[in-house]
Amino acid sequence: MPRFSLTQLRYQLRSQLRQYRHYHRSRRQLLALDDRLLDDIGIDRTQALKEGHKAFWKHTPLDEGPYENR
């Protein structure tokens, strides 16, 4: 039977919250970019809005890429 570790739970929770903050901050920054900068990174305004308005707990797996048309 696996042992319950409060220390491990705190570490995982802290790590997950840090990741959520990263998603939230990155998406806010993406929404603030102008069209020239969006063009530099290879996405259009529609894609930026779609990604920028996602809920902070949602993420795109690395193998799919965040800016592909889905």
Automatic annotation (TrEMBL):
Superkingdom, natural source: Bacteria
Residues covered by the YjiS-like domain: 13-48
Pfam families: YjiS-like
Protein name as annotated: YjiS-like domain-containing protein
UniProt organism field: Halomonas campaniensis
Classification of source organism: Bacteria, Pseudomonadati, Pseudomonadota, Gammaproteobacteria, Oceanospirillales
